[in-house]
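Long-time lurker. I teach an intro course on protein structure, and each term I like to show students one example going from raw sequence to a predicted 3D structure in C-alpha cell notation. This year I'd like something fresh instead of my usual example. Would anyone be willing to generate the C-alpha cells for the chain below so I can use it in lecture? Attribution to the forum is fine with me.
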Amino acid sequence: MSEESTARELGRVAKATGIVGSMTLLSRFTGLARDVVIGYLLGARSAADAFFVAFRIPNLLRRLTAEGALSAGFVPVLSQVLATRGRREAIEASRVIMTFAVLFLLVVTAAGVLFPAPLTWLFAPGFSAAPEKFSLTVRLVRIMFPSIFFMSLVALCMGYLNTFRHFMAPSLAPVLQNLSIIAAAFLLIPLLSQPVMSLAYGVLLGGAAQLALQLPFLRRHGFSWLPNPNFRSPALYRFLRLMGPAVIGAAVYQLNVLVSTILASLLEPGSVSYLYYADRLLQFPLGVFAVALGTAALPSFSSLAARQDIDGLRTTLGYSLRMVNFISLPSALGLMVVAVPAFSLLFQRGAFDAADVAACAHALVFLALGLWGVSAARVLVPVFHAMQDTRTPMRVAFLTFVLNFLLSLALMGPVGTAGAGNAFVTVVAALGGGIGLLSLSYAGLALANSLSATFQFAALLWLMTRRLGGFAWSDYGSSLWRNLAAAAVMAGPLALVAARVQWGSATLFAQVPIFGALLAGGVVLYATAAKLLRSPDWPLARKMGISLIERLPIFHEKK
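-- Reply from a regular --
Happy to contribute to a lecture. Here you go:
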C-alpha cells in the first residue's frame, strides 16, 4: 500500500468518524434527555426496573439479529460484490439479502409478541418473585417488541448506506427514537393509567420513525424495496455463512449486559436500574467515539480485505487502536472522577434521590474500568468481519461470555432464594456460594463486565496480529503509556475540585457552570499533557477533532 493510498484511506476513516461521531453525539444528548425524563417519572424503583428489562429485550435482540449478525455479514459481502462485480450487482445482492431479512424479522417479531412471558422470565427470572412487577414487564414487552422489526431494518439500511460511504442518515436515526420517547412521555401520560406505558408506545413509534428517515437516502443510492426472492444467490449464501457465528462474535458486550441484567434481577430492588443508568453514561464516550470509529472503519477494512491489502489493513488497524487509546483512557478516568457530579446534575430530582445517585455512581466507577477494552474490541471485531471470518470472534466471545458469568458469580455475593421459586435462582445461589470471592452486589457485576471485556480485547488483538503477520507494537506501546500518563495528569486536579463541591445540596444553577468547567478543564488539561508528553496520536486526534467539528451541521455532506 503506497503512502498516498494509506493517507487517503486514513483520511476517509477520520472523515467518516467525524460524521458518525457528531451524529452519535447528538444521539447521546437526546438519549440523555430521554433518560432524565425517565428518571424523573420512574426513579430507580420497580416500574423503572420493569421498563428497562422490557426495553432491553428488543434492543438486545436487534443487536443480535441485525447489528451483531445481519450487518456483520452484510457490509463485507456487499463490499466484495461492489469491488469485484460492480454497483449494479451489489444493489441486486442487497435486495436479495433485504428480502430474506424482512421475512426473518417478521417471524422473530411475531414470536416476541405472542410469547412475551417466557422472554420476560428468561431476561429477568428474579421478577417472578414479584407477580405485579412481572406482569407489568410482560405488558411492556408486548408493546415494545415490534420495534425490533423497524430497528433491525434500520441497521441493515446502515450497512447498505455505509458501504456506499453515506453515514449521516443511519447515525441520525437514534435521535428520532429518543425524541419519540420524550414526546410520548409528555403527550400520552394524561391518556394512560400508568406513566410507564407512555414510554413503551414512544419506543414503538420511534422505531417506525427511524426506518422512515432512511427511505429517501436509500432511493438516492439506488436501492429498491421491490422483493427479490432469489434465495440461491451466492451473495446470500456467503451472508448466511457469516451470519450464524456473528450472532455471538459481534454481540458479546450485549450478551454480558444481558447476564448482568439477569443476575441483577436477583439482587436488591433497583440493581437493574443502577446498572442501566451507569451504562447510559458510559455510552457517551463509547458511542460517540468507539462505535463511531468501528462503524466508519468497517467499509475501509472491507475494501482493503477485498483487495487483499494486508499492509493497508495493518496500518489502518494500528491507527484505529491508537485513537482508541487517545480517547478511551481519559474518558474512563474522567467518568470515575465526575460520576457523582454527573448523576447529581442530570438525575437527582423527582423520584431520583441522593441514594440513587450514590448507587449509580458506584456502578459507573466499575463499569468505566472496562471502557478501554470494550472500545478496542469494537474496533477489532469488524476487522475479522471484513476478512469474512466470524468464527474467530465467536470463539473468543464464547470464552468471554463464560468468563463474565463466572466473574459475576464470584464478585456479586450471595443470592437469596426465598420466594423466587425457580430452579435457576437455586443454581445461581449454589454456584455463587461455591466460587464467591467478594460481595460487591451490582458493582461486582459491573466489574465482571470490565474484566471480561479487557480479556476479549487482548485475545482478539493477539489473534489478529498473527493473522496480519505482525503489528507496530512499539508505536502502540508508546501511545498507550503516554496517553495513560496524560489522563492521570488530567484526573488528579479534577478529583480535587469535584470533591470540594456539595453536589447533593447545590442548586442546579450552581452545578451547571461548575460541571461545565470540570469538563472543559479536563479537555484542556489532557490535550496539554498529551502534547507535552509527545503523544504520537496528538496530530491524528487533532485532525479528527477538526473533522468532527466541521461536520456538526452535517447537512453539507457530499453526495
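Some talking points for your students: Residues 3-550 form one domain. The mean pLDDT is 82.
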